[in-house]
Amino acid sequence: MEIRKIYLSEDEIPRQWYNLAADLPTPMQPPVTPDGTVVTPEMLAPVFPMNLIEQEVSQERWIDIPDELLGMLCRWRPSPLKRALNLERALGTPAKIYYKDESVSPAGSHKPNSALVQAWYNKQFGIKRLTTETGAGQWGSALSFACSLVGLECKVFMVRISYDQKPYRKILMSVWGGNCVASPSSETQSGRKFLEQYPGTPGSLGMAISEAVEAAVTDKSGKTRYALGSVLNHVMLHQTIIGLEAKKQLAKVGIKKPDVVIGCAGGGSNFAGLSFPFVHDKINGADIEIIPTEPQSCPTMTKAPFAYDFGDTSGLTPLLPMFTLGHNFVPPPLHAGGLRYHGMAPLVSQALVEGLLNPLSLPQLECYAAAVQWARTEGPICAPETSHAIAAVIREALKAKEEGKEKVILFNYSGHGLLDLSGYDAYLSGKLTDYEIPEEDLNAAVKSSLENLPPVEAKKSGKW
Amino acid sequence: MEIRKIYLSEDEIPRQWYNLAADLPTPMQPPVTPDGTVVTPEMLAPVFPMNLIEQEVSQERWIDIPDELLGMLCRWRPSPLKRALNLERALGTPAKIYYKDESVSPAGSHKPNSALVQAWYNKQFGIKRLTTETGAGQWGSALSFACSLVGLECKVFMVRISYDQKPYRKILMSVWGGNCVASPSSETQSGRKFLEQYPGTPGSLGMAISEAVEAAVTDKSGKTRYALGSVLNHVMLHQTIIGLEAKKQLAKVGIKKPDVVIGCAGGGSNFAGLSFPFVHDKINGADIEIIPTEPQSCPTMTKAPFAYDFGDTSGLTPLLPMFTLGHNFVPPPLHAGGLRYHGMAPLVSQALVEGLLNPLSLPQLECYAAAVQWARTEGPICAPETSHAIAAVIREALKAKEEGKEKVILFNYSGHGLLDLSGYDAYLSGKLTDYEIPEEDLNAAVKSSLENLPPVEAKKSGKW
């Protein structure tokens, strides 16, 4: 019988995270303020605990995962590596398709890999309460789950329109003891201001971030911090456990290296998690094609410039060096909400500048077609974000078929779609369309967002 | 590090199902028609394919699982055996709590274990199309999934009120290519009659069964059959793969036998699946307490008589020998929809008559409290049905603590609750209540249901 599921036992779990910053040939450029001042660790201290800030700026290649935390991660980790044997057969491809199944976490995605770590380090630092924002609720539910395990209070500001229209992840948060309010709320000064300025507003991620950060930094006890689910270096770091496990699992079936590594990228964390350990190998000479995928209508990696831009849409965060469509860019209402982000994690962006990655943008309808083919061959219902990895996998598998090559394709199955079924319904009933974003609209968003911000040069070693 | 997840590789999957009928000391009594005629295999042939009817009436102890089918089951099987280490710690119990995680199947429960087998045998028999009914949609989605893998058409009659109010499992069915219509529909004679008699009716499982069976038996091509998700002997048989795997997995961590085996029981299939291999051991002398659990407000095993009764609520099926509250009994609107069944599988019922089982009924609020404790310790969100197993596990673990005994408790984690979050919401916002069913109401339902039906004696060997 062909083996479809490759497990690691708990005592084979990786005991260190991998930090790509140590290996990038050109050093990462620092975050700055709008006047160009370099942001120091001390400046971040009111927002994040110092132990996570240390990870954020670390240049160490390997960072130990504390034993107690490993034990907690083992609730769902190591995650299975699975082979998509039936999709292979349906495509008639000689390629072998493997995937890390990150949908097995209690919150249903890779998000808890960092949420639990952040909650744990905050707890170690003496913090009592975390705040965050959430759109559709993936990150808010992952952080609620993590706080419930670690013993922290969790406050989630959820964009009001999602709060009203997508009750399911809100219920998840309550089950895990999270305190979720619709944003803008009357609980913060910025929330009250938004409500006064825009009565009846559906809210936005930008407003929710403002509220969450305010709620963290204005707590006079000093025991509240803020947590972010993607983009930052330490979040990428925590997710590398995915790729490190995958390497051990591939070795178990005699595979020395994958030929192609694929992950969808919104802020970049699930893609980075799987791929960075393989980017390490590529830097050291391995021949691996590494493909981050994104929606054609939010083409951060394929059409945007590398620039200093705000991490959020309302200009509260430091400026990060990244590929960005501009913080004013409003992506169309894609079902893959996790991929509707204007920027890209600085670490992913720098790997891209170096030429280590081959990004691919995909239309929504092709992704849903891939998701349905997946469900009818392999069985599970994938998240709309994950469908952007699967569509690329199918393209690569068909290319391998044309070329007659027995490639090994590895991808990140970042989450299930059981709480995102309405997108499938819209697709199956013919109500979905692709979105064409005119070049001039992209350019206008970039221009309006970046015109008063300090410039940054895309520095690269020229090796790739 | 303590091991929480015990895996079997695909080549360790059991290659035979276990048939409890071969080992029950008192032979099973046959299904009959209302005039007392014994139902023969031939009489069932318009409804089920003969290869499944042979399993239904088989007295063989072990029945081979065909290799091709094993390969297909390996999409999600063997399922993991997991240890609930964090619940143990939270309870401070010396008991070790293990569970089979059946939520890992694409449909999210144990149901595909039989759905796929039934679809495969129908396909082998030359059938092109399966029909079934579904309430909330668990079984309908499992069968749609199974038919999509095997290449059969699938027609699901879904109770109208669920069709309108619970769109999510309906969408699942479409993703897997199932054709789901609200029942009563205008597609069958019985559906049209119901619509004429009761305009605007919310529908019922009874009506939906009538439509599904009619759609199967009236197809003139002879290529359509009907499929049932619980109660029948062959469904119990297919589910025994759960318990057979669990035995191998317990052996891997050096456990010769569990002390307590627990599963919730609606029609009985997930309970039977885990427990029957251990009932076998108990018959052969092992000291194991085997506990099927049920809602206090639908107390089939703890308060109902053993009698011949219809399997459905509208009196279409043969009469089955079972514990039954009467087919006229209407359980209160529990969130654990899968446990709202008036009867109990004949095989489970006969094991109960023999004294091999220790059934337990539980109030809904205690079960939701257990589900929330589970989510906040172990992490995952369980199905409301599964919470009836977890509540019993907690009782047993606390008993072991009182007694200071290191018991091994094994239970069936029959499914996740990600599509049943509204029940959690109602519980957390204090809107749920327990239901008290007065004794006289139970008696009246039994009496009105059974008064014109042939009697049956509860025969037992007296060994337990």
Helix-strand blueprint:
The structure is a homodimer of 464-residue chains.
Chain A: E1 5-6, E2 16-18, H1 41-44, H2 50-57, E3 62-64, H3 67-73, E4 81-83, H4 85-91, E5 96-101, H5 112-124, E6 129-134, H6 138-150, E7 153-159, H7 160-165, H8 167-175, E8 179-183, H9 189-197, H10 205-217, E9 224-226, H11 233-239, H12 241-252, E10 260-264, H13 269-283, E11 289-295, H14 300-303, E12 306-310, E13 319-323, H15 346-354, E14 360-362, H16 364-377, H17 384-403, E15 408-413, H18 421-428, H19 439-450
Parallel strand pairs in A: 5-15, 6-7, 6-9, 7-8, 10-11, 10-15, 11-14
Antiparallel strand pairs in A: 1-4, 2-3, 4-5, 12-13
Helix pairs in contact in A: 2-11, 5-6, 5-11, 6-8, 9-10, 11-13, 12-13, 16-17
Could you tell me the strand content of chain A as a percent range?
Answer: 5-15%
Count of helical stretches of chain A: 19
Would you identify the regions of chain A where 5 or more consecutive residues have pLDDT less than 50? Answer: none
CATH hierarchy class name of the domain at 5-12 and 64-108 and 233-450 in chain A:
Alpha Beta
Give the overall silhouette of chain A: globular
Structural class of chain A: alpha/beta
Oligomer state equals homodimer
Note down, in words, how this protein is organized.
- In chain A, helix 6 links the parallel strand 6 and strand 7.
- Helix content of chain A is 41%, strand content 15%.
- The model of chain A has no long low-confidence stretch (mean pLDDT 96).
- In chain A, helix 5 (112-124) crosses helix 11 (233-239), helix 11 crosses helix 13 (269-283) and helix 12 (241-252) crosses helix 13.
- The first copy, chain A, has helices at residues 41-44, 50-57, 67-73, 85-91, 112-124, 138-150, 160-165, 167-175, 189-197, 205-217, 233-239, 241-252, 269-283, 300-303, 346-354, 364-377, 384-403, 421-428, 439-450, and strands at residues 5-6, 16-18, 62-64, 81-83, 96-101, 129-134, 153-159, 179-183, 224-226, 260-264, 289-295, 306-310, 319-323, 360-362, 408-413.
- With 464 residues, chain A is α/β, with parallel strands linked by helices.
- In chain A, 59% of the residues are buried.
- Chain A has a domain at 5-12 and 64-108 and 233-450: 3-Layer(aba) Sandwich (Rossmann fold), CATH 3.40.50.
- Chain A is built from 19 helices and 15 strands.
- In chain A, the strands form four sheets. Chain A has a seven-stranded mixed sheet with strand order 1-4-5-15-10-11-14, with helices on both faces.
- Chain A starts with a strand and ends in a 14-residue tail after the last helix.
- The interface between A and B is large, with 45 and 44 residues.
